[in-house]
Amino acid sequence: MDTEGNEEKPASLAEKLDLLFRTVHPAGRGPYTNKEVAAAIRQRGGSISDVYIWQLRTGRRDNPTKEHLEWLADFFDVDPAYFFDRRQSEEIRRDLLTMEAMKNLKVRRVAARLGELNEDNLDVVSEIIERVVQALQSNPQSNARESRSEAKGDSPS
Questions:
Q1: Please, what's the largest Cα pairwise distance for the chain?
Q2: Do 34 and 49 meet the contact criterion of CB atoms below 8 Å apart?
Q3: Domains of the chain (ranges plus CATH)?
Q4: CA 142 to CA 102: how far, in whole Å?
Q5: What residues have CB less than 8 Å from 78, skipping those under 6 apart?
Q6: Buried b vs exposed e over 95-119: b needs ≥16 C-beta within 10 Å?
Q7: In sequence order, which residues have a C-beta less than 8 Å from that of residue 111 and are 6 or more positions away?
Q8: What are the angstrom distances between the C-alpha of 75 and each of 53, 68, 99, 140?
Q9: Closest alpha carbon to 15 in 77, 96, 102
Q10: Which of 3-12, 97-106, 140-149 shows the lowest per-residue confidence on average (mean pLDDT)?
Q11: What pLDDT, on the 0 to 100 scale, is given for residue 1?
Q12: In Å, how far are 3, 57, 61, 97 from 8, measured between CA atoms?
């Protein structure tokens, strides 16, 4: 469900793979390439090509074998259920998005400060953050305008 209580469309295979590529890679380097992933899977005994991975990532192919998905899950060190089970997929997706967010220095600073709070205070801050996110999502024009202002170095009005 989304923040407004509506049923969300499950992520496509291409979206799931894109999230893995964006978020799961060693610190200090960018995402893996399709060639790197295919070569690593072949070294581990699997059989997959970089072109086939590209086709899966772009949605040109969307019905891989269970074995291909298990090899991809193994490479990215996620439970294969990420590809098969809607509930576990959502949990893993949230973890991956959290990992991605933690790469942002500002997010890490906020997280470090939150570690200083007790459980009751964390609940209060969590509720405040949830309300702010909901407000921003319900008014995307305002959010986009502020993001553009910040990118230019202007302060939001």
A1: 57
A2: no
A3: 13-88 (1.10.260.40), 105-152 (no CATH)
A4: 24
A5: 20, 24, 92, 96
A6: ebeeeeeeeeeeeeeeeeeeeeeee
A7: 102
A8: 13, 11, 17, 36
A9: 96
A10: 140-149
A11: 46
A12: 10, 21, 23, 16
Of 82, 68, 77, 91, nearest in space to 25 by CA: 77
Give one DSSP letter per residue of 3-45, joined into a string: TTSPPPPPPPHHHHHHHHHHH-S-TTS-PPPHHHHHHHHHHTT
pLDDT on residue 138 = 84
pLDDT digits (tens, 9 = 90+) for 50-84: 999 999 999 999 999 999 999 999 999 999 999 99
Which phi and psi angles does 109 have, rounded to 5°?
-60, -45
Residue of 7, 2, 34 whose CA lies nearest to 20: 34
Determine phi and psi for 24, rounding to 5 degrees. Answer: -105, 95
**What would the two tokens of residue 16 be?**
């799931």
Contact status, residue 149 vs residue 155, Cβ threshold 8 Å: yes
Residue 101 is encoded by which pair of tokens? Answer: 């967010």
pTM of the model: 0.63
